Amino acid sequence: QVEFFAVSLAVGFIAQRAGFLKNDTIDSLSRIMMKVIIPFLILTVVASSGSRSEIISSWPFIVCCFIMYGINALVGTLSGKIIRLKRPELNAHIGSVTFQNSAIFGFPIIMAMFPQKAGIYIADFAIVETILCWTGGVLVLSSGTGNGKIELKKMATPVTAALVVGVLMVFAGI
């Protein structure tokens, strides 16, 4: 999966540099990813993860995911202060350290270590990541520009809607 991701990035980079993909095309592809593909990925991962009791019984893993993000945020804050970053660069630094794409490496490791329960753990991780990224991440980045408040309107995205629908499907047994 990591190799496929790396090759996909390289092909996209080469296609853009060669002029096959213009900036407006890349912007359109980004919008499709954020508004269609990623929400459906989250919906299918969460909805097909397992039963309500399996998700609930995996609470220690969910707690560990929250702790991991807390440690990441602390490291981002401390390292940003050590290198004397100021807003908004400090906030961008904290966001990039906290919300790095650990799933690209983490999911294959989870699948290798826990093949029978990988779907549940991946769904748990996706739930925590989506909750924190689209609440805490939005708060951290928007506070860099002086708008540090949680706005439900900013959090009402296709990604959060997909997460809510997926969790409701699991808990309803659909």
Please provide a written account of the structure.
With about 170 residues, this protein is mainly alpha-helical. It contains nine helices and no strands. It has helices at about 1-15, 25-45, 50-55, 60-80, 90-100, 105-115, 120-145, 150-155, 160-170. The chain is globular and about 45 Å long.
Please supply descriptive tags for the structure shown above.
mainly alpha, 174 residues, 9 helices
Structure summarized in a few sentences:
With 174 residues, the chain is mainly α.
What would the principal axes of the Cα set say about the shape? Answer: globular
Q: Please summarize the sheet with the most strands.
A: none
- How many β-strands, per DSSP? 0
Helix content range: over 70%
Structural class: mainly alpha
- Radius of gyration of CA atoms, rounded to a whole number: 18 Å
Q: What pattern of helices and strands is seen along the backbone?
A: HHHHHHHHH
**How many H/I helices?**
9
How do the helices and strands line up, and which of them pair or pack?
Blueprint lengths: L1 H16 L5 H25 L4 H6 L1 H24 L6 H10 L4 H11 L4 H26 L8 H4 L2 H15 L2
